[in-house]
User: Fold this.
Amino acid sequence: MRSAIVDRPLDAAALLAEVSGTGHGAAVLFVGTVRDTNDGRAVTGIEYTAYRDMAERELSDIVASTAARFPGVDIAVEHRLGTLGLGEASIVIAAAHPHRGAAYEASRVVIEETKRRVPIWKREHYADGTREWVHAGSGTQRTPEAVA
Assistant:
């Protein structure tokens, strides 16, 4: 089990290799990437920032609680901070388990709980030159300063 908040490009293959093993009949990989539109607006990139200590703690807690919920699962997750361009990975979750259902569900729990609980914010950069903080869970804007 491993989780990290990082400032470098993510290596999905390395995370998948980290959780793979002969005891697992299934390994799933979730890669969240920067897309080119949001709510009908053209996006050119996204800037991610975090309350790092709390984000690392919450992400670690999510991985631990997910592992307890799905005995036998191995999970590795990394979330990237900084400015990312279109198509770049912002989060990678690798989950492996003896059975595919548990591997899929563990991965889904990690991404949903991460979006709900981890204090990571994104500021979208739009094609018209504007930038706005976007709260991923509700669609409403929320700045990092609002929780400081």
Observations:
- Residues 94 and 121 are 22 Å apart (CA to CA).
- The chain has one domain: 2-147.
